[in-house]
Here is the input.
Amino acid sequence: MNPVSTLHNVRVSLEMIKWEHSVFALPFALCGAMLAARGWPSAWQLLWIVVAMVSARSAAMAFNRYADAEIDAANPRTRSRAVPAGILSKRFVGAFVIAASAIFIFAAAMLNRLTLLLSPIALGIVLLYSYTKRFTRWSHLVLGLALGVAPAAAWIAVRGSLDLRILLLTGVVTFWVGGFDVLYACQDYEFDNSFGLHSLPRHYGISRGLLLARVMHVVMLILLISVVVSFGLGKLAIAGVIMVAMLLGYEHSLVSARDLSKLNAAFFTMNGVIAVVLFIFVAADLLWHRL
Here is the structure.
């Protein structure tokens, strides 16, 4: 294989999976790790948690492009993506998925025995999402769960066991991601109707879809407060929850049933900011109490 061609394909693959958007879930994984350690985990644990997170998300995004190649080709919004545009072959993307999955399992093995044993289950969850919009309108929450396993997995990576309290943070991520994925699905309302794909906006309309997204984010905030209480976090963490609530309110103010033009700002920019802000405040709270 031509090395230059391979490097080009890898570069295009990284653009395809938008690897920089790992910022959506990585801060929550780090929150889970810090809650487990009541401070910073070891450098070894942090290294492999980050490797596991990025590789799992890369596998999931590449698999989504692989599984949805025909759907993307039919959708005017997505037909310029690498696979339907013919820039990358499905064979190469499939190989990329296998390589990223292997790195994820290796990273899990570097952490502890339980993370290794559970790694195929976690991988199955993150890959399953790509097919759910073919048969359920609640695919948004499946995507949320795919990212939501991150903090629980990070807890297991640090402790080698599971504490049920960390599942509250899994719920936070599940409803957070589910809500903003409903927002994102609004732009495909007409295509999903014509192609027979399922989403909450398609089944209930854009206005009700936006309302359901708000409900999911209210549930997220309730669960987030439960995390603060369950782990005995302090004022800094509470301030983080307030900041997240304000940012979510601003995110929802950017979109309406009549105007979806700012959807990308709401989806990409604001959600990255929300994840990072929450991590900063939770980390600061945990480290402050160790002083």
User: Anything to note?
Assistant: The radius of gyration is 19 Å.
